[in-house]
Amino acid sequence: MSENNQLTETIERYLNGEMTKAERAQFEELRAKDADVNTKVAEHKHFTNLIKQYGERLELEQRLDAIHDEIDVHALEDELMIHPSWVVRMWRNHHSKISVAASIAIFAALCTLFFTGYLSNKQANYGQLVGEIDKLKNSQKSLQTAVKNLPLRTAMNNPGNFRGTGFAISANGYIVTDNHVIQHADSVYVQAADGKSYRTKVIYTEPQNDIAILEITDPSFKPLAALPYTFKKAETDLGEGVFTIGYPKDNIVLGSGFLTSSTGYKGDTTQYQISALLDYGHSGGPLLDSKGNIIGIVNGKQTRVEGAAFAVKTSYLLKAIKDIPTDSLNKPININGKNILAGLGRPQQIKKIENYVFMVRVYNQ
Amino acid sequence: MSKELNSGIPTDSEVILGILNNSESVLKRLYIAYFPMILQLVINNNGNADDAKDIYQEAIIVLYNKVKTGDFELSSKLKTYIYSICRRLWLKRLTHMNRYGGDIKDFQEYLSVDDETEKNNERDIQFNKMGNALQLLGEPCKTIIEDFYINNRSMQEICENFGYTNADNAKTQKYKCLQRLKKLFFQQK
Q1: Cβ distance B188 to B129 under 8 Å?
Q2: Which residue of B has its CA nearest to A55?
Q3: pTM beyond 0.80, yes or no
Q4: What is the pLDDT of residue B47?
Q5: For testing the chain A interface, which of B149, B155, B179 should be mutated: the one with the most A CBs within 10 Å?
């Protein structure tokens, strides 16, 4: 070890030129003689040079760093950067967000398409299209048939030119309705709540009071049970809760409100005014008070005012019944029913009277 | 020298003479003169300012060493030479980072300079090894070696710095350190 150190020291002194002339000559002689020593000298020289160069490199790098620190790199960067268009910049800065948003949008669109069946039902849509064409063909054919068969159509297929409502005034088939419902009629049918239709005859009309009396002449008609309501002769007071049922459409419809005036349209004393939303088919229907007394016959409404309807007072109906010529009556009219509605709630009342209220169908050419 | 001359872009021969004479001001003027060019090259080709600094300093060192060793022949403008070296280095690094898209935006004309950067690369590897070996060596060996072989301090000075009682002890210590350094250096792959 120490021998080794000694050799290294000698080599160093030799390389650094610290030897005397005599020493130097001696060492060079040794070098020439001993190849081992010679390599060691070369190795040492190389290695120490490397250390030295490494040191120089470090120093140079430090110098360069010091110079570099004096440069305002940021300003230079801004100046030298080729600024791409804002679209590209936006993409660079936000591309992850944009990608996420786009994938969500695509996913949502696909989901929507999937759940609305767009993706799976291509075939069915195609089929529907064919069906549509077939349907068009069929409807055209049926139109042609209809045109050919037109003269053969019977009146019975006609649902009726006019429609109104009527109600029984006696159990044996006398019905009252509005005169304007049945005027100009060729034939008048009534249809009960159970759907049965009966032929009727107009036996008496009173156009000035808009009252018409019908008699069911159909042999299939069976007399009704006793009337559940009575007719109230006296005038009814304002504010009385009133209701009516009728056939503005194929099913029975309730209209209800209050008695709002003791005179009708333009002060007509034969009528009451009521606040009820009524339709045209309600005409001829019974107007009942809350106890189930008939106080009038619904006959019209004011077209410009919502919820202003009119009804002919019962006294005029009773007067009309009295005025029917006896020779046009096949059966006696017994209007004296027994009021069984007084204590009932509205739904029960309606259930009781709906069998006595008829849809009036009117046919004319 | 007037300030004007001091701050402008140095002429090519000025640079070579400056490097040979270890002129700090010429090195600084050289550095400042061509850095923007390289910054422009790097930041517009997928790099940042730090990349530009690394690349540029490497190129300056290549030039510096070539001038120092005396085998530098100026066959083109110095500017073109520096740009070419940096371009070459940056391409290499881009490829290494898998960021090279196969096309590079150029701002200057350039030459092909393959072999020179290769040579420098080998040297860098040696220096890296030396740096690592010195780190592994630890104190006080590292400082002793650095002081003696790099900073050219005398054994007497080192002796005083480390409080050795006589120069022989310090010498023995130094040779031990050198021995270990050699071992560490050659152990590295």
Answers
A1: yes
A2: B150
A3: no
A4: 84
A5: B149
